[in-house]
Amino acid sequence: MTDYIVSINDNKHLLKILSNNSIELNDDNYEVELSQLSNFSYLLKVNNRVYQITTEKFDGQNYTFTIGGFSYNTTVRTSLEEKANEYLQNKAKENGTEIIKSPMPGLIVKILKQVGDNVKTGEPIILLEAMKMENEIRASATGIIKSISTKENSSVEKGEALLEIG
């Protein structure tokens, strides 16, 4: 049995794969059948209801699923990976640091601050281009830029660390 934590819009769901055709999702059991149609397209049969799904994988843990015309950004981690992620986030909070992460996949257009610069909550720090629009990433804490882990003109994935404020 394999356990996964699936995060959709910051809501976490426990998914257990019980067998090839049986899963448990948040303590409810489902009979499932998955058929691949192409590299990114699948048919998913859940308790005799059929859904067509298209998916895009951004990295080892982040995906976008489109089902019935609705898109969902998801993060899929094993239980161990989820515990490690929570530990690292809590450790950063204990150290009084805030890790600013990309809210979506995109291209870093401009980094507005440098290591050592003071920032205030709500202040623009990075310009991110996504879906042909420029988005301002703003500081979620007041402090000093401790490190920057991205570069201008580089692609980033949703949830990727961009910089650290301490």
Key attributes of the depicted protein:
16 strands, mainly beta, single chain, four-stranded antiparallel β-sheet, OB fold (Dihydrolipoamide Acetyltransferase, E2P), 166 residues, Glycoprotein, Type 4 Pilin, 2 domains
Summarize the structure in words.
This protein is mainly beta and 166 residues long. It has two domains: 2-79, Glycoprotein, Type 4 Pilin (2-Layer Sandwich), CATH 3.30.700.30; 95-165, RNA polymerase II/Efflux pump adaptor protein, barrel-sandwich hybrid domain (OB fold (Dihydrolipoamide Acetyltransferase, E2P)). The chain is built from one helix and 16 strands. It has an eight-stranded antiparallel barrel with strand order 1-2-3-4-5-6-7-8. It has a four-stranded antiparallel sheet with strand order 9-16-14-11, covered by helices on one side. Strands 13-12-10-15 form a four-stranded antiparallel sheet, with no helix packed on it. It starts with a strand and ends with a strand.
Poorly predicted regions = none
Content of β-strand: over 45%
How do the strands of the widest beta sheet line up side by side?
1-2-3-4-5-6-7-8
How many domain modules?
2
Run of helices and strands: EEEEEEEEHEEEEEEEE
In angstroms, what separates the terminal alpha carbons? 41 Å
Query: What is the third-level CATH name, the topology of the largest domain?
Result: Glycoprotein, Type 4 Pilin
